[in-house]
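Researcher: Here's a chain I'd like modeled. Treat it as a single chain, no partners, no ligands.
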Amino acid sequence: MARLVRQAVLRSGLSAKEFAAHVGTSPSRLSTYMTGKVVPSAALLLEIRDAGERLSANTRLAAGAQAVPA
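Model: Modeled as a single isolated chain. Structure tokens:
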């Protein structure tokens, strides 16, 4: 589970603190999920996964928009 959480945070392109705010948890609690000390609920794990994918897509879209010459 910890690996999935870490991957979602990395994929999002956000800091752990910013990502925690997006999924409705504290940075310290997110850290416990990332290290495997605590396992998130199934509902929160799905939210973490979905947020990682959603934010990754938004980051790619924003990067693509910036790469287009004006």
